[in-house]
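Can't paste images in this forum, so I'm doing it all in text. The chain is below; anyone willing to post the predicted structure tokens underneath?
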Amino acid sequence: MRFTTTLAAAAAIAVSGVAANAGGLSTPVKDAPIVEVMTPAPTGSVTSGYILLGLMAALVAASASF
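Text version of the structure:
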């Protein structure tokens, strides 16, 4: 009976010791805060409409010269 009580007490102490150190002894690592930077959409210096207009004018000028 004494051996069983000692064994039960040792098992209870061992389980409580494992449960106390379950998270580890080191300090928890915290992630850096996430910062979202909003950048404006890039805009071209010349719009595509002007390029299209220039190409059409060049085609008209080239076809008139023939």
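Residues 23 and 29 are 12 Å apart (CA to CA). The chain is about 55% helix and 0% strand.
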